[in-house]
Amino acid sequence: MADPTVTRIQDWLRAHEDDLLRDTVKMLQIPSLEAPALPNAPFGPENRKALDLALDLAKGFGMKTTDLDGYIGYAEIGSGEKMVASLGHLDVVPVGPGWKHAPFGAEIDEGYIYSRGATDDKGPTMASFYAIRAINECVPDLGVRIRQIFGCNEESGFACVHHYMEVDEAPTLGVAPDSGWPLIHGEKGIASITTSIPLVKGEVELLEVTGGQRINIVIDECKGRLRVSQAARKHVDEKLADKWDANVTYQWDGDVLSILAKGKAAHGAAPFFGDSAATRLLRFLMEIAPLSTETYFEELFQAMQISGQGLGIHGRDEESKDLTSNPGVLTTESGRLHIAYSVRYPVTWKGADVKSKVEAHLATLKSGWKLEHFSDSPGLYFPLDHPLVKTICEVYKEETGDDKKPEVMGGGTYARAIPNTVSIGTCWEGDGKAHETDERLRVEHLFKASRIYAHILYRLATQLK
């Protein structure tokens, strides 16, 4: 039998769907990309503007608000020692080319809102925010606090939540609406790795390779330049005549071959959903290169493998399955090609072991590879019988009739940085994938998510009383 209080909260949300949509559109229209810091705006003016909008709305809704130095802010309802938190983020990744709808237009087309951040994570954050507003309107004081946290640096470093944990309190229980339904009970470890290799010289000279926006996005465009000696020109021309990849184009300027490769962006946690332009370009170079540089270009191409085999880290565990590697940014500097990766490794592994494996593998290669950078965000794992996991699964089944089981993912959410927290779902079939072009969220799914968030947050709060 349905809880009458939950029914009352959800009826309030149904009556205020127009308000939720209006405020979500306003939030999506702010291009909250990270930019150079300004006073009280450590992640740039547009992130500051998005945080201001959220906090101003919260004040208008009668919530208590706190701004933690522009890094992060929150709105809070209720009272008591214990606190339930919902953690969302207002920053977004770059848009890239190929959009059919204005990336920050928040246009509604055939029932979908199109915008960067629609699914990751502004839409879900606003749905959660309204869920908390509804609880406040219908149950003014639960004897437990509920807090909507608005982060501003999730996509590029988590500095916002690290700052939060330095100056404020961890939730008694928390959710981060930023993943899959009903919840993600394990998040793989995330290693940020940069390697470099000297630019090859000889019959051909690699002058430049450039591509990528962020390490957690599959590269959708990559450019390269190769100087070809007279001795190698015939060989290269013959190979070019057999070129088969229609996504790679080239042109000559004297003895310099300029190459452009096109691919498809996707979230770096699941690079198999994308099509790396850098992989296409480096395969092309490997196929046209003369025999004297064969080993060099083979090693370079192998380093692009999403399995991590080219870094010596391929592997899996039963809890989270296969490691994935996304070579997300390629740059050329000081005579070396630098490749920055986002590696998602199994939950039972340790980052130090991943680093050791990379170092050992690079030492076996012949082309002068170096490990330039390694940083690590350890994984997260909640057993399936954990009370937080069980409660969210129960609510989701009550709301949808779906007995879907929790999963483990390669993506990283605030749950890995905030104690007592798991990430929960944001969207359903038909909604656009995070970090891809024409990201979209069905309007009805925005409303549906808000009702489910309200039920989850209310249930968690009542369990803490």
Structural account:
The protein has helices spanning 4-15, 17-28, 45-60, 122-138, 159-167, 230-241, 277-288, 294-302, 351-364, 387-400, 443-464; strands spanning 64-68, 72-77, 83-89, 107-109, 112-114, 145-151, 173-179, 183-187, 189-198, 204-211, 221-228, 248-253, 256-262, 316-317, 321-322, 324-333, 336-345, 370-377, 380-381, 407-409, 421-425, 440-442. The mean pLDDT is 97. It is elongated. Strands 1, 2, 3, 6, 7, 8, 19, 20 and 21 form a nine-stranded mixed sheet that branches. A four-stranded antiparallel sheet has the order 16-17-9-18, with helices on one face. A four-stranded antiparallel sheet has the order 10-11-13-12. It has 465 residues and is of the alpha+beta class. Strand 12 (248-253) and strand 13 (256-262) form a beta hairpin.
- How many β-strands, per DSSP? 22
Q: Which strand-content bin applies to the residues?
A: 25-35%
Q: What multimeric state do the chains show?
A: single chain
Shape: elongated
Helicity range: 25-40%
**What is the residue-averaged pLDDT?**
97
Counting DSSP H or I runs of 4 or more residues, the number of helices is 11
Low-confidence stretches are none
- Let me know the largest β-sheet: 9 strands, mixed
What integer value in Å does the Rg equal?
A: 24 Å
Structural class: alpha+beta
Distance from first to last alpha carbon: 21 Å
